[in-house]
Amino acid sequence: MEVNIKNIFKAFFKIGAILLGGGYVIVPIMKEELVEKRNWLKEEEIYDYLCVSQCLPGIIAVNMSVLTGYKLLKFRGAVIALFAMSLSPFLSIVLIANILSNILNIPFMTGLFWGVNLSVIILIYLTLKEVWKKSIIDVFTYFWFFLILALSLYKISPVILILSSILLGAVIQFIKEKKNV
After folding, report:
1. pTM score > 0.70 for this model?
2. pLDDT tens digits, 34-66
3. Which helix (H) or strand (E) holds 140?
């Protein structure tokens, strides 16, 4: 089959549409589509691209599609292969999101998610209770907790509050060690 933009797009859109699972799943799919059906690559090239793709940051399947597209039609081939490989999963996610938004309007599902929200609050409370027992141990830790809580109500950045607590903890530990030495 001729190597051109249209055929690269079709091949990688198909691969992206049937690719389920991790990056290694792409090898037999690419082998069938690009080696056996289209005769665009040699089997060894698929394995070479797999090895290189594992060394690069990012998703193995996407890396392999870019390398293959580049081999076939240089930069244009890489861009088309990347776009086509990513398009079908993107469309699937949009479709699933649309279905989910319709499901959320069903009263039973609304009640189900209300129950899930309550469960999450209960889990957070149970975690807070356990952390409280181990962290709030004296007058100073009560004071610090309520000070941080009050500052958070005034919309002070959580990052500043967390970093100041970490710094305070380090200073207190340093002072305790100095007293013991």
Report:
1. no
2. 999 999 999 889 888 988 888 889 888 899 999
3. helix 139-153
